[in-house]
Amino acid sequence: MYKATINNHSFEIEPTEAGFLVDGKTVEWDLVKIREGYFHILYNNKSYRAELVKTDRESKTFTFKINGRIRTVTLKNKFDLLLEKMGMNSAGGNKLNVIKAPMPGLIVDLKIQVGDNVKQGDAVLILEAMKMENILKSPGEGVVKNLNVKKGDSVEKGQVLIEF
Length: 164
Prior knowledge:
This protein is mainly β. The protein has two domains: 2-76, Beta Barrel (Lipocalin); 91-163, CATH 2.40.50.100. The protein has one helix at 78-85; strands at 2-6, 9-16, 19-22, 25-27, 29-35, 38-43, 46-56, 61-66, 69-76, 98-100, 105-110, 117-118, 123-129, 132-137, 142-143, 146-147, 154-155, 160-163. Strands 4-3-2-1-9-8-7-6-5 form a nine-stranded antiparallel β-sheet. The protein has a four-stranded antiparallel β-sheet with strand order 14-13-11-17, with no helix packed on it. The protein has a three-stranded antiparallel β-sheet with strand order 10-18-16, with no helix packed on it. A hairpin with a 2-residue loop joins strand 5 and strand 6.
């Protein structure tokens, strides 16, 4: 499953053998590639000319000109959606808001303090779960505003641990 956001409106897209489901409904369209970056689309008996103007693969953002109007599409796959649900962002270098517990467990050690600058990949804490120590690393950059846990605390899955 994918989530596409176009001009602040989100759609769930699921590929099927017959085509695509968009928000649970089958979409019937005809797409023809004219040349690299240019397409002709027939949808609901209407004709559209589309040009791929810009691609940002890191943020998974694509800008199209469709019949002369600019549309920006952001795609998220199931892994992006999972990271977002956990309070993390998969795009490298993005500013963090929070880090949530990926599983229930016990806080064994905190590697950061309020006010610390955290970079992508920095160890932020150690979470013990099922008798294994898991080092949680920062998925992005930020300044620690608040630590919602301390050493020895038990946490639940999805609990906000650190605020940026």
